[in-house]
From TrEMBL:
Protein name: GntR family transcriptional regulator
PROSITE patterns cross-referenced by the UniProt entry: HTH_GNTR
Gene Ontology molecular function: DNA binding; DNA-binding transcription factor activity
Domain called HTH gntR-type: residue spans: 11-78
Record InterPro entries: GntR_C, TF_FadR/GntR_C, Tscrpt_reg_HTH_GntR, WH-like_DNA-bd_sf, WH_DNA-bd_sf
Transmembrane regions: none
Keywords from the named record: DNA-binding, Transcription, Transcription regulation
Originating species: Microvirga aerilata
């Protein structure tokens, strides 16, 4: 007799609320400094208050919001110095993730390298199409793949928190920065090192790539006078 299959579990309402609110914050639907009640946020998301309340608690742990006593919730703004600190963390953890990927068995690292190459090819096509939003989505996929496939759960969790915090600044300045043609070449240097199993080179390329991003983004934020993101 065949075992009865368990029905596929649906994401919980809290998980839905967490994702919806986080995406709204990342994409500036709720901009930096926004303040509102849980009820107001729930209404804008089209959700009930209880799962939104639980989602807000998680997002406070992620550093994206702050609960104000009797005054609702505020979206945490980021100053240029915050962005500098966030990038210092990103630089360290993505370099280590690339190193770990390059140390994987050949078959595993080649599979990851193929997925990284697919994301990079999508970036290249987006630049040809002059579609910066598509470029940003493909770039985000590359960096998420880098950390999610490295085999270290702590790196993955830390990376998720800091990249969520940095995402707003990247999107706000996307059209203010120079055309990101160098990212494709930098990604392919990382991919080549991972594919060849060269852990030190993978570490160095990933580190230098994110240093370059920091050195472009943070001075730009300062130069245009943005004090909070």
């Amino acid at each position: 007799m065949r075992a009865k299959q368990e029905p596929e579990r649906k994401p919980s309402l809290v998980e839905d609320a967490y994702k919806a609110l986080k995406d709204a914050i990342r994409n500036n639907v709720f901009p930096p400094g926004y303040q509102g009640s849980e009820q107001e946020i729930a209404l804008r998301l089209g959700m009930s208050r209880t799962p939104v309340h639980e989602a807000i608690i998680r997002l406070q742990e992620d550093g994206l919001v702050r609960v104000l006593s009797k005054r609702g919730v505020t979206v945490c703004p980021l100053a240029p110095e915050d962005m500098r600190e966030i990038y210092e963390v990103i630089i360290a953890i993505e370099a280590m993730a690339a190193e770990l990927l390059a140390a994987l068995p050949a078959e595993e690292r080649h599979l990851v390298a193929d997925d990284l190459e697919a994301a990079t090819s999508d970036m290249e096509q987006a630049l040809r199409d002059d579609d910066l939003a598509a470029w940003a989505a493909a770039d985000d996929l590359f960096h998420r793949t880098l950390v999610e496939r490295c085999g270290n759960g702590r790196i993955r969790r830390i990376a998720q928190t800091v990249t969520d915090q940095a995402h707003r600044a990247r999107m706000l300045t996307l059209r203010l920065r120079s055309r990101p043609t160098g990212s494709v070449a930098a990604h392919r240097d990382i991919i080549a090192a991972i594919r060849k199993g060269k852990a030190v080179a993978a570490h160095q390329h990933a580190r230098q790539h994110r240093i370059a991003a920091r050195d472009e983004l943070v001075p730009l934020i300062v130069s245009i006078g943005i004090k909070h993101l």
